[in-house]
Each structure stands twice: as C-alpha cells, then as structure tokens.
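Thread: Modeling a multi-component assembly for a lab meeting

Hi all, long-time lurker, first post. My supervisor asked me to bring a structural picture of a complex we are working on to next week's group meeting, and I have zero experience with this. I have the sequence lines for every component (775 residues in total). Could someone generate the structure of the whole assembly? Inputs are pasted exactly as I received them:
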Amino acid sequence: MPHEVSIGGAMMPGLVVVFFGCLLLMWLFDTVLGRLGLYRYVLHPSLVRLALFVCLFGAAGLLLIH
Amino acid sequence: MTVAVIESGTRPPLRQWLAEAFAGEGSAWLFVFKAALALYAATWLAMWLQLEKPSTTMITVALLMHPQSGMVLAKSFYRAIGTLAGSVFGVLLMALFPQQRELFLLSMSLWVALCAGGATLYRNFMSYGFVLAGYTAAIVTLPAIGNPLTVFDSAVMRVSEVLLGVIVAGAVSDLVLPTRLREVLRRSAREQFGHFLDFARRSTGGTIARRDMEQAYLRFVRGAVQLENLRAAVIFEDPEARARSSRIRLINQFYMSATTTFQSVHHLINRLQRNGRADAADALIALYRPIGEALSPEPAQQHDPAVLAPRLQACEQVLPALARQLRDALPAPARLDFDTGAILLQRFADELRDFALVENSLRAKRLRGNVERVQFRRGNDYASAGLAVLRTFLTMVALSVFWLASGWPHGASAMLIATIFAGLLAMAPNPVSAAFHTLFAQGVGMAVAFVVTFGLLPRCDGYTMFIVATLPFLIPGFYVQSKPAVSTMGVGYGIGFVSSMLLTNRMSYDPAFFINEAIAQLAGFGLCAVAFMAIPAITGTGWQRARQLRQLRRQVVQAASAPLAGLAYRFESVNRDLFLQVVTYTRPDSRESRDLLAWALTVHECGRGLIELRQDMAGSQLPASVEQPAQQAVQAVARLFEAPDPARWQQAEQTVTEAITEIVRGQSGAQAGSRRVLLHLHQLRSVLRDDESALAPYMPAAEEPVHAS
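Re: Modeling a multi-component assembly
Sure thing. I ran the full set together rather than chain by chain. Output:
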C-alpha cells in the first residue's frame, strides 16, 4: 500500500486511511463482543477497547510502512 | 434524658450537614483532576507533535470536558463528525471564494448560523456536534483569510489540533476513573418496570382519582423520555448496551403503549361510574382482577419478568372466557360499554405480556434472535431553531461587516469567539443571564491569563514549570464547570484563560498583541450577548408554550390522517417528548400545568383510539355502510382537535354518534371487524364526552348523558 494517497488531488498520509479502516474494524469487533457479552469478563472494558484499537492500528500501520 | 436525646440528635445533623455540603465534592474534584490531566496531556502532545498552535488544542479540550464522563464518548463521536464536516466545509468555502471576502464571510455566517440552529434542535450530544461543525469551519479558515494559498495546510493543522483535543478529552474521560452511565440506565429501566407494575397491581380496585392518575402520567412520561436519553448515550460507552439498543427502544415503546391503554381503561371505568353505569364498571373491574392476580406472585418475584411473563400469558388465555361470562350477566344496555372496556383490557394484558417478555430477554446474558426496530421520535419546535439561526447569522454578519469596514487586524478572533458562544449559549436554558455571567467569567479568565503569561511564563523553563505556573489558575475554572448550574461560567473562564494565553510552539511575548486580542474576543462575545437580548430565545415563553400545546393537539390530527405504518410508535414518542418539553418550563401545580396535563391525557386517549380504529378499518374488509360513517367520524374528531371550539365539538360528537347508530342499525351480520370499529367509536365518544377532560369547556352546559344501546 502506498505511503500517501491522493484524495481529490490532495496528498494524505496513508495512515489516515488505515486509521479510519481500523475504526470501522473496531466497530465490528465491538458489536460482536458486545453481543456475546464478552466484555463482562474484563475489569476495565474501555481500557480493553482502547488497547484493542491500539493493537489493530499499530499492526496495520506497521504493515503499511514495511 | 432529653439532653442525651438532644446531643445524639445534634451530632448526626452536623455530620449530615458536612456530608451534604461535600456530597458532590468528590465527583467535582475528580472532574477537575481529569480535565486538568486531559488539558495538559493534549497540550504536551500538541507540542511534541510540533503542531503550530497548541492553544487550539487547549481551547478544544476546555470546550469539551464535561463532568459526566459516561457521556463523553457519545459526545466525542458527534464532535469528531462535527469537526470533519466543519473543516471540509471551511476548505470548500475557501476554495470557492478565495478572493471575495464579502461572499466568503456571508456564507461563513450562514453556515455558523445553521450550525447554531441545529444545536438547538437536537438535545444533548448531537448538539455539540453542531457547535463544533461551526467552530471548526471558522477556526480553519478565518486565520488564513488573508492568505488563501495556505488554507489547505492551515486546515490540516487546525483539524489535527482540534481532533487531538477531541481524542485526548474522550480517552481521558473514558479511561481514568470513569463514572458509568450504564448502571444508571439499568437501574432506571428496572425502577420504571417495577413502578409501573406496582401501579397496575395496586389499582385493581378500578378507581384512581384523576389527580393520582395525572401524577402517575407525569412519572410515566418522564421515565420514557429519560430512558431514551440514557440509551442514546450509553450505546457509545458500552458495546453490550449497544447490542441491546433495539430491545431497549422496543421495551420503551411497549411501556408507552401499555401506560396509554392502562389510562384509557381507568378513565373509561371512572366515566362509567360517574354516569351511573356502575354495573358495567363493576364487570370491568372484575375482568381486571385476573391481570392484577397475574402481576402478584410472591413479593420477592414481583419484579421478575421471567416469572411474570408466563403468568401474564396464562391470564391472557383466561380473559376472553371470563369476558363472555361477565357480559352475559349484564343487562343489554350495559353490554356495549362493557365490550369497549373489555377490548381495552385485553389489549392491556397483551401489551403487559410483551413488555415482560422483552424485559426478560433484556436481562438475559446472551441475546438470541432479533427484534423489531422502532424509533423514538422527537417533537421539535422549528421556530426556536429558526430564531437561533437568524440571531447567529445577524451576529456573524455584523461582526464581518465591522471587520471588513474597519480593517481590524483582530476581527478573526472576535468572530471565532462569537462562533463558539453562539452555539453554546443557544443550548442554555436562560441565555441572557448565562451570557452575562459567562462574559464576566471570560473577562476574569483573560485578566488572569495576562498575569500568568507576562508575570510567570517568561520565568518558566520546561513543561513541568508550565504546569506549575498555570494549574492553580485553571483549577477554579474546572471546578465551576463541574457544577451544572454555573457550568457555562466555568467554560467561559477556561476559554478566556486558555485562548488568551495564545500558546504557540515558539512562545512569543507581546503585551500589545495580547490586549488587542483580548479586546477582540470580548467584543465577539459581547456582540453575541447583545444578539441574545435583541432576539430573545423563546424557550420557556408563553408563546412557545402555546405553540407546543397546539403541536400536541395536532398530534390527534396526525393520528387521524398520517400513513398508518409505524404511526402508533411515532405518536406515542412524539407526544411524550413534546409534553415533557412543555412541562419542564411550567411551574408544577400552576393553572398552565394542569391545563397541559389535561390536554395531554385527552390527546393521548383520543389519538390512540383513532389509531386503533384506523388500524382495524384497514385490517378488515368492511362494507361501505360501516367504513364511510367511521371515516367521517375520524375526520370530525381531527377537525375538533385542530381548533377546538363548541361548534366543532358538537359536530364531532354528532358525527361519532351517527356513525355508531348507523353501524348498529346495519349490523345484521355482526361481522367481527365492524364490531371492533363500533367499540372503538364508542370509546372515542366516551372520551369526547368526558366532563373532566380538557374538552369539558367546549361542551354544552347541561348535557344529558345519552347511551347508545
């Protein structure tokens, strides 16, 4: 994937696109985990959500750069 | 002995007094801590990322932090959307009018005005999204107005700064010692469930005084609207609640329709008793008894839907047979009254069962299957939004004209501050006094910022010293912000302080610039306040109340004419939302509030009756001899509610009575469909004739109650 994407002629960092993609993915994860009630088994659900997002975005971002 | 009593009596009060005095303090200081943490973390990040103006990030955080941390995520979501929409619009505008300042400022004013109007239309979080959409468009473009070529870079920079603020504010509120709204939602939903069941169980005697009924109605309405408000916030905070969201909506709808039916039944019984139809009333009360019994298992299980649902289901099976039995024992003239009540009661049992079933599935650990999707509709007053748009537009245009005509170098700051507060104040319940308090607070914030910027900051070295120098002055602002009654003052102070400090990534000290900037900001804000005096907000005025009452009555017209799909749900929710809006601004127990309650109850009963009638008419193939008079009756009732007066009342009553006699006369086949239509018409007529309802003033003075047989 390219490091920079052109949106309407303006160059945007590819990370921005990855970021929104991860948000979407996170939203899906969230829906499934919430429906299954898995968040009941963690101490701090919002910390878990954030951590999950950081993992997703970190992994996808590293993949983009390499 | 007495001394001992007094002593032991005085001690707890002191402790109690202390406890009461410091009741909210824990959460207030928690908010101060979190707000300061978010502000400094965001500023540090902004500096570390070498963003041009960390002060934008600071302003954003100061604008966004809110004590109810559970709601912050919901807000962040809408704020992020608002920010993106605003920045895109700002860049677009700059691209369209790079050279024409006048056109640019005109469209900018229009945009900000529309955003302010949108903020008044939506309650709680979405309105923040609108405020930010206006604010971002202004902050992105205004500083770059003299140099259109840099607008894209400037936009990227501002959006990064604003979004950084939004993200940090959201993350800190959600992660650091969050207060969860989910528990509040769960508690209030269960309380609502229990309270309604208790009320329904206790009233098996059949009669409830009108007054008690009105109080109960108030409580039901408040419960339904509050549940919806909480739901809209909690879905962002808690994925589990999001999975349950459509169920919560559905249960709220069942709750609303069950309360309406419940009230219709009781009003009917009351009316029958008043009109000397005790035999029918007693039979209805006897028919109600099995429902009461189904609701009364052992005390420990009285609020357990898993126990109640099967009991209600069993009760539903019993009702038709019992109704037949009771009906046969009645003299012929009372049968129509009884049948009218009986279908209401059966519907009530039906709705109670659905209510218990959904509540039960809501409490289950795992969700199975899907449920019907329903919407909670709001009743908005577009006049007040229109006024907000007009007011903001005029403010912004006045500022831009002044800016253009005078060549004022600090016009952009004035407009920026005006944008922020036009949106924020439009949502405040009492904007003029809020505006002056906020103006004062903002002035104080600026003065303090002056002292800090030129007295302390030059001697500071490094970020830690920056925190040490500014924190003591920020704390009071955040503390005030945590008190709901004066929170806009806190916001004003915070924004005045933070925006005047003008933190840039290479700090420059220029007292003259500072003072000019401060004057510009005060001018921007002052004009905002003046605009609120010139075009006052109509929230809570008698004019708006009259408008809302008219809107409430028009709900019946809607019930009579709007397409049927989803109408029942829409009717129930809009009604409650409207009613609650009016009730918030009327003094309890005043004449207005009693009038309003009476109208709300009548509108509810009539509208629901009309909807049921229309549904039955649509669902069964009726002969024209039934359909036509029923249709006319519906139209006549709608006309009555459009503009009630004695003539229209008489006409409505006459048309409904004619329809009843016509159907009774032609009813040789006694088709099930036309029978139900007849019963609904009968109920409608009894609502129209209710001499304790809001329609009473339109009735002819001494009217003999006439009963159709």
